[in-house]
Known about the structure:
This protein is α/β, with parallel strands linked by helices. The protein has one domain: Rossmann fold (3-Layer(aba) Sandwich), CATH 3.40.50.10490. It has helices spanning about 5-25, 25-40, 55-60, 90-95, 100-105, 130-140, 150-155, 165-170, 200-220, 235-250; strands at about 45-50, 70, 115-120, 145-150, 170-175, 185, 195. Strand 1 (about 45-50), helix 3 (about 55-60) and strand 2 form a beta-alpha-beta unit. Helix 1 (about 5-25) runs parallel beside helix 9 (about 200-220). The radius of gyration is 19 Å and the shape is globular.
Amino acid sequence: MKEKPCLNYFGRTTALLEQIVESEIPAIEKAADICAESIAHKGLVFLFGNGHSRMMCEEMTPRQGSLVGFFALVEASLSNHAATVGVNGLRAPLYLENYEGYAAEIMKSFKFGPHDSFIVVSTSGIRPVIVEFALEAKKRGMPVIGLLSKQHCSESKPVHSSGQKLIDVADVVIDNKTPPGDCVVELEGLEWRTGPASTVTGSMIMNMLRCEVADRLVKRGVKPVLLPSHQFVGNTSAKEALEEYYEAYRKSLAHLYA
């Protein structure tokens, strides 16, 4: 009996998660060292991803259990395409992500500090805006962590005029283990595969990284301020913790617009 497509997807994706455990822990730990170092010295860990990769940034912050010190630097113009066609459709973001100089203009709006670091998320790791964010971060002295598919990035031709890809620029590379094209399920009668896996593997990596960073900060004697669950209606302590998170997050941005 032929395997159900839903179980095919589940099996293939959970196998990718197992591969992350087998090979990516050292990279996740190195990335956690960088992030903890930034946050412990009152720096920020910036995250950028365009298109669907923006979801990985939002998985890190703001999110229940997220730590003050992470800052999602994402642009709606590069990821807001819920309408698919028409206003806020898909065409414009796909065009802009290939436009060199755009990332540099975005970064001019911020004042980066000496203890900041950067996480760039892109499964392909080749789009000009992605490479440019990494290059601009390095230019400002920030260590760069790249979350990508090593297989997809390695097998793809560079698009940025420098001839570089995210895998070439990042100081630490974490492999989300997805195949070229991201999708893992082939169905008879369809030319293209379906069942993208990078959302699952990328979110897993983000949460693994978050937990490692929190542990490192606690061991340093730096108690991280966490976003609590605000779903416990009537829980006074949760409400107070939420206000504490807001205030700590506001203070963490002090150097960003100075």
